[in-house]
Amino acid sequence: MGLSHAEVGAVLAEKWELPDFLVGAIRAHHAAPTSSGTDETTTLAATCILANQLTRETHSGVGANETPDPELPSFVP
Q1: Coil, strand, or helix at residue 30?
Q2: How far apart are alpha carbons 49 and 66 in whole angstroms?
């Protein structure tokens, strides 16, 4: 279909009328955050990226997602 699971998730979130910050975080959860993390979308997306990295490093979770995660910028603690 030419869509990533992040884009499919964002389309579904829009259809379900979820708040814009959730739609944006779903769409961006494999993209490097570009702002200082002060808005809800950036903070939630960075949290998802960090969670993905931690589960991979600790070999926990199902491991079904092979999409590489971006490096987190220095403003993400």
Answers
A1: coil
A2: 13
